[in-house]
Amino acid sequence: MPDAVCMIYYLTRWMIGSTLNKWHQDLKLVKFYKITFLFEKSLKSFFYHLYSYNGFYKNKTT
Question: What is the pLDDT of residue 30?
Fold first, then answer.
């Protein structure tokens, strides 16, 4: 029974890996990944600036 579970696990992992390789070859998806990465980066920086500004404002008022 554990051998069958391991075989299923490795088979699914291999299938996921092959599909990911297929996706990485597609340029549109790579561009999509880049856009989402940049969007996430800008969102993080925006929230970081927002929190730092709030902290600075609170320190200035007190």
Answer: 67
**11 pLDDT higher than 80:** yes
From the number of C-beta atoms within 10 Å of its C-beta (0-12, 13-18, 19+), residue 46 rates as: exposed
Three-state DSSP at 1 gives coil
Question: How remote is the C-alpha of 59 from its chain's centroid?
Answer: 34
Q: One-letter amino acid identity for 20?
A: L
pTM exceeds 0.85 for this model:
no
Residues 6+ apart with CB under 8 A from 23: 29
